[in-house]
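Instructor's aside before we start: the two examples that follow are unrelated to each other. I chose them only because their records fit on one page, so don't look for a connection. First example below.
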Amino acid sequence: MTNDFIFSHVDHTLLKATAAWRDIRALCEEAERYHMASVCVPSSFVKKIHEHFPSLTICTVVGFPLGNCSRAAKTVEAVEAIRDGADEIDMVIHIGALKEGNLSYVTGEIKAVKETIGDHILKVIVEACLLTCEEKQAMCRIVSMSGADFIKTSTGFSTGGATYEDVKLFREHCSPDVRIKAAGGIRTLEDGQAYLDQGADRLGASALVGEARKQK
């Protein structure tokens, strides 16, 4: 598996609170140079990226990072992001609703966001590090029936990131048309290759460019 192949599956990510336009611009330049799948950025930068880097696929986040805002707030965020030029939406589920067994609410909010963005790609962040095995399996079923395009392991802002075990579980329990995004803690190109081998279709990462430079 070549570095170019790995990079073609990477959402080059910068979601830190301290990120300024100079940082986002550098991220976009790297994404162009390495032909990455997308840049994943805060929604406030979407319009400017769309204007300055028209060739890039732009991903942004909704309900990030906690997921416990209202369904209406998530749909408004998604509408505005698409209007500004976003191509893909990564939304965080309401984890508290899942924990109390309110699966219909979680299903409903995913469907609402997907209906709002239409044919644009929707990735559902389940924050797997906070879930039991049964809750992870429930989310596989919900994502599979909701019309979403991806299930995503993590925000990268909680107690843990992606694990090989979670990617394997998702692949076993999601419908075949649901793709998997592994995110959080992917630090090396070897990690990236291993997650793709395990069944991930997309990687959320920020450190892989640095790794590629070290190899030169």
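Example two begins here.
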Amino acid sequence: MELGERRAADAAAAQLAAGVAAYGLGVAETEILDRRRGTTSAAFARQVAMYLCHVGFQLSLSRIAAAFERDRSTVAHACHAIEDRREETHFDLWIGALEAMLRKAPAPGVSRELAQ
């Protein structure tokens, strides 16, 4: 996969993860993907989306940072913050359900021939 294709696939993964986080938290996807920090709710939803990209799509922190237009350290902080919350049973079940949604998604471009 070429660099441009990989970046496009990573951006699509980030958008899908943001959509799942938006669905799960009732925050607008546009707020999650916004360059500004935004509200506390939007910032938390963005952390969830970044975490979902990491565990659901197995993307590296650097690739997630590029897809969300953030610093790698910001993504690392987000992943640690969400991972720490997994000790809470209710939160773990909730985030696990969101993870499962992403893991069932087909790989980007796999279904391209279906569109033709």
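The chain has six helices and no strands.
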